[in-house]
Structure formats: C-alpha cells, structure tokens
Amino acid sequence: MTLAPSRVTDLLAEARLAIDPVDADLLLAHALAKSRTWLFAHADDAVAPADADRFRALLARRIAGEPVAYLTGARGFWTLELAVSPATLVPRPETELLVELALARLPTDVPVRVADLGTGTGAIALALAKERPRAAVVATDASEAALDVARANALRNALRNVAFRAGSWLDPLGDEAFDLIASNPPYIAEGDPHLDQGDLRFEPPTALSSGVDGLDAIRTLATGAPAHLRPGGWLLLEHGWDQGSAVRALLAAAGFEAVATHRDLEQRDRVTLGHRP
Ligand code: GLN
C-alpha cells in the first residue's frame, strides 16, 4: 500500500494534537521555507516527503520542550523580526509594555540618549531605535554571543542608531549620562521550580535568574543607574508579577521620584519606573 502524501492541512492537524496551533503553523512554515499566510492559501497542497520529515523532526523537538523561536531561529517583537539563538532569551510580548512606557517618555524631536542593559536579541534597544530615529541608543550585554545576535538584528532591520557594548549592567556606560535607561533583567529566584519547566529549561540561566530572591540584578541597576542618568532621566525595569512593591522600594531608596508600577495585559505587575530628581 502506498501512503498518499500528506497535505499541508493534514500535517497541521497532526501537530495540533500535540502543540499550540500557532506554534504548529510557525514550524510548518519554517520547514517549508514559506510564510504563515502561504499555509492558509495552500492547505490542500501535497508536501514533499523530505519536507514532511523535516517538519516532524521539528515537531518532536517542540514536544520535547524546545522553544519554537530556537527551532525557527526567529521571533517577532514590536514591529521587528528578530533572529534568536539559544544564547539569548526569547523576546516576550509582555516586554512590549516596557517599550510603550519608554516611548511615552522619549520626545520625537530631540536627539535623546537611551541605554538598554542586558539587551539579549536587542529587542528593547532596536524597538526604541526604530521608533525614535533621532535617539542614540546603547545596547549592552555581558554575553558576546548575545551581542552578536543583537548586532545581526540591527543590520537585518537596517537600524544604524544603536551601538553595542560588552559588559555587566552599568559597567559599559563609562561616565556617560542618559535620558532613559531600560532593562528587562533576569528576575527569577534561583531554585524557583519554574526554571526546570517548559521553555525556560532551554534559555540561558544568566538571562533568567538572579540571586536567591531574583532581585540581585535589579538591586545593581537601581543603585547604579542614578549616576548614569541626566536630571529628570528615567529608569524602567521589567520584573516578576510579585516583585512590584520590592522594586518600588528599591527605586525609592535609590532616590528615584514618581516611582510607579504598570501592569501587563494580563493585569499583572510587570514594569516599575521612576525618574532621577
Ligand atoms: N532585553 C532582552 C529581552 O527583553 C533580553 C532580556 C534578558 O535576557 N533577560 O528580550
């Protein structure tokens, strides 16, 4: 008996039994080197056996837990398509809240200076650079491998107003002062059981966790940022849903004013900000 070749719709139905439907689309589109919209218009097309095999191999890896963005090598963030590698955190939609809050504090008509610390794929730095072409953005990361990904993403998105620097948190800023410093630092407590579950198992531990209460990086950023902010300059930090009051206390203790926490679309505390007097 010869098996009829699988159609696009059959492969998607097979995958949807085991994984999220959007993930199924992304993996099949990647295996076929087509776009997601192509899939919808070609549901009844037969898929070559080699392509179907490649898709099923990706599906097996996804079922074993690997993040889809590592399997496809890309993730959409803001209006950008970003390359992603296992050296970087996969950009999350929640982080777009931080981008919105930063943009609300960045004038369009003045050449402001902005820093994104621990840039990973470059998600925050590149989104801000795209929306504020007159801004000079500095993106830092302690990982050279992550900086390579971020630099490639700047080229891929034709963004020339971002400079990349290696180093830990505020170290690469020298004695420079900025109008706004943003960071989505690691904030999960070491030993948190979530680190051993789901996609987090595959992401860089240094991008995820920071000290016994998860707040080590945020403490460093809160205490170090004032020396690198112009008067009136803003610090914006992403953090965990249960860290809002702790982060507000750290910012207040470091002398920040107008300290406030903003919630993400799921109504969870997500970003705390304040400005230097
Ligand atoms: N800034 C990057 C992002 O938001 C990386 C964050 C991180 O590695 N903790 O995706």
Overall description:
This protein is α/β, with parallel strands linked by helices. It folds into two domains: 8-64; 87-275, Rossmann fold (3-Layer(aba) Sandwich). The protein is 36% helix and 19% strand. It is built from eleven helices and nine strands. It has helices at 8-16, 21-32, 36-41, 49-63, 68-72, 95-103, 123-131, 144-156, 205-208, 216-224, 244-253, and strands spanning 74-77, 80-83, 113-117, 136-141, 162-166, 178-183, 229-238, 257-263, 269-275. The strands form two sheets. A seven-stranded mixed β-sheet has the order 5-4-3-6-7-9-8, with helices on both faces. The chain has a two-stranded antiparallel ribbon with strand order 1-2. The longest helix has 15 residues, at 49-63. The termini are far apart. The mean pLDDT is 96. The site of glutamine has 13 residues, from helix 7.
Helix content: 25-40%
Bound molecules: glutamine
Query: How many distinct domains?
Result: 2
- Give the overall pLDDT as a whole number: 96
Count, helices? 11
Helix and strand sequence: HHHHHEEHEHEHEEHHEHEE
C-alpha geometry: elongated
The helix-and-strand class reads alpha/beta
N-to-C CA distance: 78 Å
Query: What's the total number of strands?
Result: 9
Pick out the low-confidence regions.
Answer: none
CATH class term of the largest domain: Alpha Beta
Give the strand content: 15-25%
Strand order of the largest sheet: 5-4-3-6-7-9-8
Indicate the CATH architecture of the largest domain: 3-Layer(aba) Sandwich
Global Rg: 21 Å
Main β sheet profile: 7 strands, mixed
Q: CATH superfamily membership of the largest domain, which one?
A: Vaccinia Virus protein VP39
